[in-house]
Design goal:
The chain has strands spanning about 1-5, 10-15, 20-25, 40-45, 55-65, 70-75, 80, 85-90, 95-100, 105-110, 120-125, 125-130, 135-140, 145, 150, 155-160, 165-170, 170-175. With about 180 residues, it is an all-beta fold. The relative contact order is 0.21.
Length: about 180
């Protein structure tokens, strides 16, 4: 098991420069935006802004801090993104966010279409996490958690190598990647 500590993440600008993100993990390690198979990050969204577009990428966004936002595509279609509800959409979509009530932090999972696929689940402790995928990453959200006997502070993540118990009083984002 590998623990990915929040304190080790550097802030980098979004592809379109409208916000900042902190990479949690990607495959292959050290991949660029053009070469990743999958990428997991935390985006800090301070204002109503357009999202970066990513050709050939599937995105799953989950607001994990703050109240939430509305996503509006150029087609006019809107999708509500309240806290702790994963929302999936194609990366090439031109999307603008409208914050409900102040800044949010969004947990982002991006996979290259035809190369990888991901699912995101929000679980409250206590719970049992079944591995069942090529990669399973668990991130502690607003509270400290114990995952597979390891203490995680908020925003810390762990890559599991088997089934695990989620203990404590908080919630976690669980990502399964095939």
């Amino acid at each position: 098991m590998v623990i990915l500590h929040a304190r080790d993440r550097m802030a980098t600008p979004w592809k379109n420069g409208a916000g900042i993100t902190r990479d949690v993990a990607c495959d292959p390690p050290g991949a660029t935006m053009a070469t990743f198979r999958w990428r997991i990050s935390l985006a800090e969204i301070q204002a109503n802004v357009p999202f970066s577009q990513f050709l050939g990428i599937e995105r799953t966004l989950t607001v994990v801090d703050g109240r939430g936002m509305t996503l509006t595509a150029t087609s006019g279609e809107t999708t509500e993104a309240p806290r702790d509800v994963p929302i999936s959409f194609p990366g090439e979509s031109a999307v603008v966010c409208q914050l409900y009530d102040g800044p949010v932090v969004a947990f982002n999972v991006m996979t290259r279409r035809g190369v990888a696929a991901a699912s995101v689940e929000i679980l409250a402790a206590p719970a049992r996490i079944r591995h069942g995928a090529r990669v399973v990453l668990v991130m502690a959200l607003r509270d400290a958690l114990v995952v597979a006997g390891r203490q995680l502070s908020p925003w810390d993540a762990i890559v599991l190598d088997g089934d695990a118990e989620l203990a404590g009083v908080g919630t976690a984002a669980v990502v399964r990647i095939e």
